[in-house]
């Protein structure tokens, strides 16, 4: 199928499909006219890519995992290396969430302390 058909069937823009190709996630054949010709299973592959992207995985990580993906969810075949990548990504997300939570608390503390003070003057604290 041509890129336009794959785009229609998956809801993914053609430029994103070309990006997936540059990342090694999709491998279309080229027709005599130079057009990309995607196999029928490319619809499933794009669905898997989109699902893994929603999990916050990079295209590099997805390229590593895609051969282990089955089904549209995707389901992943269990292997220690794959689980290690997933756990590392989860640790990174947890650390980022912790950092955001600390920042949020500090901002709340500043707001609370500022609200308790009586206003003395106006200040020009507009963001630049």
UniProtKB/TrEMBL annotation:
Gene3D superfamilies: 1.10.1660.10
Keywords: DNA-binding
Stored CDD domains: HTH_MerR-like_sg3 (cd01282)
TM spans (from-to): none
Superkingdom, taxonomy of origin: Bacteria
Location of the HTH merR-type domain: 1-68
Protein name: MerR family transcriptional regulator
Lineage: Bacteria, Bacillati, Actinomycetota, Actinomycetes, Streptosporangiales
């Amino acid at each position: 199928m041509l890129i336009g058909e794959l785009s229609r069937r998956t809801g993914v823009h053609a430029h994103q499909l070309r990006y997936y190709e540059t990342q090694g996630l999709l491998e279309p054949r080229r027709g005599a006219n130079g057009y990309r010709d995607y196999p029928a299973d490319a619809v499933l592959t794009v669905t898997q890519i989109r699902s893994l992207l929603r999990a916050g995985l990079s295209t590099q990580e997805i390229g590593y995992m895609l051969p282990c993906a089955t089904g549209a969810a995707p389901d992943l075949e269990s292997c220690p290396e794959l689980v290690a990548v997933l756990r590392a990504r989860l640790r990174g997300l947890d650390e980022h969430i912790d950092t955001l939570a600390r920042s949020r608390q500090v901002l709340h503390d500043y707001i609370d302390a500022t609200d308790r003070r009586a206003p003395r003057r106006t200040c020009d604290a507009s963001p630049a």
